[in-house]
Amino acid sequence: MVAKKIKGNKKIYGTYSNRDFNEPIPENRFPETGMNARAAYELIHEELNLDGIPELNLATFVTTWMEPEADKLYMENAHKNFIDNFEYPQIKKEEERIVNILSRLYNAPEENDFTGTSTIGSSEAIMLALLAHKWNWKIKMQKMNKDYSKPNIVFGADTHVVWDKFAKYFDVEPRVIPLDKNTMVANPEELIKNVDENTIAVGAVLGTTFTGAFDDVKKINDLLEKLKSEKNIDVPIHVDAASAGFITPFIEPDLKCDFRLSHVQSINVSGHKFGLVYPGIGWLLFKNRSDLPEDLIFYVNYLGDEMPTYTLNFSKSGSNIAAQYYNIIRMGKSGYKKIAENMMDNARYLSERIKEIDNFEIVSNARHIPVITFKQKNKDNFTLFDLSSKLRSYGWIVPAYSLPKNADDTVLMRVVIRESFSNDMVDLFIDSLNSAVDKLKGNNKAIKSVSPRKGHFVS
To answer: Does the predicted model carry a pTM greater than 0.90?
Structure first.
């Protein structure tokens, strides 16, 4: 977010100020003197209590809980600057191990010299991947003595805003394909219709933030193969697997949406989503070392050793990498699969409970990832935006939003089921949802619901 200038000279009074300091502190200016450590902690602690409760935040994909051992490793490595490879070589080795583990998880051919890097999150990973594809396209056009001043990139309106940011920041024409109202993703044929020799890459998403739906990567790949065969236009696919990268390989291993497809050259995934690590950690993987242009890698002689770096930022903590490696070796494929299946079961259970509520229609039913969206069947005397606000009064954070162009007349509510959201919490949420709906309709009677599980009552 962009910070704004705040006028005035407002002061902050601590909740326990009379115990440790008597003078208030300025809110938007550097205080002239410091204060007692306990007082500073309490002041900030009490203020942050006004934030939403992470466990009740059904809007976020981001991990809000890790095991105590992962927490411990996180804190033990929080002060290590990852870029200092010479001083902290082991954390760099763990990054390399994870890149190899994930590349193989996404079926990179063993004969390939695959490569990758950790990032702050999937946004940085996508920026870096698309920058590499732009560079490769530019080199190709230069070799053919063709104009390389007008690159474009093709993706659907179901993508994250970072795709638009990339196009703006790196001066690439965005060709954004509207959503298909039936599939809630971009139509593959429409994507390929917009591809030409100036296209640096086609974007495909596994788990859109709007509905959790998947682009048909296999279909897109088939159409690009046909385009290459007929017109000799060879365009890579970048797969944005931010949400699904730690779900799909474990519960749908036969779904071809990764490096098994000929045009998929790069994939990103968020470790801080279903990779079960606190923010921010993402991963960028290239099928071939040649997909990452050498010209974009900087070799920095810094603090004792020459280090290759391919990132938009420079400094970051090593804590997330340690926690990611912990999760991988702690749980293995079987552990991640068990957690993913449990989240999917809870998501589908929530879907069944929502269907019981009058005038709600399920739009996405956790087909690939544990995300449920629903809408109102008919107009009511309240909107889903009203419902979102009312649910906040119960502590639940549930977003309501309109879909992008071509489906912008549809308003949805979305619930993301994370590892910490159990069947019991589903029942509690449904009680709050029923109560909120009832009050918005003007009926304030007490509500008592019965779970489908025998003997489980909630009042």
So the answer is: yes
